[in-house]
Amino acid sequence: MTSDTPLDFGDPADLDQLRRRFRAWLADHPLPERRPDEPVPVFLHRWHRLLHSGGWVGLDVPQEYGGQGLSALHQVAISDELGACRAPGVPRIGYLAHALLEFGSEEQRRRLLPRMLAGDDVWCQGFSEPGAGSDLAGMTTSADRHEGQDGQADYYTVRGQKLWTSYAQYSGLCLLLARTDRSGPPHRSISAFILPLDREGVTVRPLRAANGDDEFCELFLDDVRIEASERIGAEGDGWPLAMTTVSYERNALDTGHLSKYGLLVERLRHAARDRRGELPDGLLGEIGRCFVDYEVLLAHARRRTAERLAGKEAGPESSIDKLLMTRTEQRLYETALKVFPEELFAEGGEVFGDYLYSRAASVYGGTSQIQRNIIAKRVLRLPSGG
Amino acid sequence: MLRTFATRFRVGSAAVKPSDRAAAQKALGELGLAELRRTSPPAATVQECALLAEEHGRQPLTTSLLGTVLLAPELLRLLGEDAPPDQGTTPTIALARDLRFPGLRSSGLVAWDCEGADSALCVAPDGTVTAVEPGPPAPSADLLRALRSVPPGSPSRTVGRLDAATHQRWQAYALVIVSSELVGAARSFVQQSVEYASERRQYGREIGSFQAVQHLLADATVLVEACTSATRYAAWCLDNEPPARALTAARVAKAEVNGSVLEAVQTGMQVFGGIAQTWEHVAHLYLRKVLLGATTLATTTDLLTILAEPEAEAA
Lengths: 386, 315
What we know:
The structure holds two protein chains of two kinds. Chain A has helices at about 15-30, 40-55, 70-85, 95-105, 105-120, 240-250, 250-255, 255-275, 280-310, 320-340, 350-360, 370-380, and strands spanning about 125, 140-145, 155-160, 175-180, 190-195, 200-205, 215-225, 230. By secondary structure, chain A is of the alpha+beta class. Chain A is globular. By secondary structure, chain B is an alpha+beta fold. In chain B, strand 5 and strand 6 form a beta hairpin. At the A-B interface, helix 8, helix 9, helix 10 and helix 12 of A face helix 3, helix 5, strand 9, helix 6 and helix 7 of B.
């Protein structure tokens, strides 16, 4: 599992130049202001389009699909620069792009990827269901096949319900998983589709989360017709596609969380210095621990990137990455509330909102318990239960 | 090469004869690794040396790879022209009696990892390097690593001085090398406990098939991977980044390693169950090594206190 050859943790040679070019662009393109009544996703979408107009979205996507053909590290450098000037991050579409890159047809990639990167299409992800969260294989949304005269699939009729679909109310397209074979083994009977959300039979209902946000939605699918040409990959490719997607979703580099953590860690360390003697010793140690967590996660993400550049595919090891990311995020916000207790007595405190969101880190993308199962079975190859 | 050596000279239990220790050290000496960091520019990168230290940690070995092969020669190299000619001596490094970096008020020193060493180099907080003579063997909980006390007032001789940046580089290097050996030990012991869990049967099935055991081993694996990433990155920083940045990365690595290798080894022992509580089993050799390793050079409290505040701006 671990190579014992030296790795290159360094930045690509052209990274400094990229950063300088980006800073120059930022200087010419002031951050847009969020209008008072503007929903966050709408504001972020405006930002997405502006970033794309400068060529700063999809840096790690090949050029023929609208990207820049660079590496994940280049995209992370952009995230870092944005974080440093407290701008919103890059749009979180990396994992969707990778799903299309690996499983989409050439036609789908050429048609959909450039629009995704440009923000012309806003995507959401329809994986989880009320009865299938961490146990994704237990999904019951079905796609019944209708065959044309040639015996090939013509179209599908989809019925079911999806849950935790982030920002579906602001999205135009959904990467949907549904069962195309009700009797087969789950890992070979799930297929992936591109579903336009304005199609007849689709109902989107936002759900209010514990932090007050309406990010998560329910998606009701009542006899929705999806064309065979809207299927991604072959029938049964849905499971490997989902596994690839969540592998990318579990890597801190791909999700752009790192810059956000880094900013808060520095805020905590400055508080430690400015309030020296005021903060109890124990809390000082906790702040030090947050910095260690963050730096370890950064080193770990760099190691993964170096391994990926050396040709290693994202696999079950991503469960290790997810647990490290969760540890970092949850400890960080717990500590932040102790350093800034006033957050508990203010309305709409940002740190408090993020703290509530951090509690979901050990649930979304597969609970921490599921990640441990994956490590035990697929990384350590421990025997399965009798 | 080191792996073959380690397989041949690893100790099977806590009872090691002094003559076996000497023979193993002699065999290690014959591998000629001490030259790796002695020449300028060095023949091996820090990352390569860190991987060697990791490998050395994997087996219960009594040999001084860290003190006499990787650390003292690098210190002499960093001293540059100040360093005296070697004159056929084999130095290791000297630490405070509690195994931390030597402090201002030196309340006594030990020659650390001193198997086969005849002197010890002490780096004072101001960068002054002195050579001291090791005295009688000193007991410690780690049965593998040899220590000798340096009696107060024993002869010492100044050999040179590290400037501020070189001193940072030295500290970072020492932290990385010590951390790497601990990571190797934890990784190897967790691997052994995974293998044991796949074979040992209770209640009619392998204990590794129980989810409670699986989650223990998964958590230990996450800790080992975190330590590995942090330590290898810190080693890379020493090869590629300015000393201040390398020192921060090394402190981060040691802070992660201190807590995580101990927890990982204790978890592995829990999986081994009763057998790991015996004198004959290797488990306590690993436990003793990581327990003392976690206090060597810098404790978690030392490191977290420093890391809690932003690095001072370069003057």
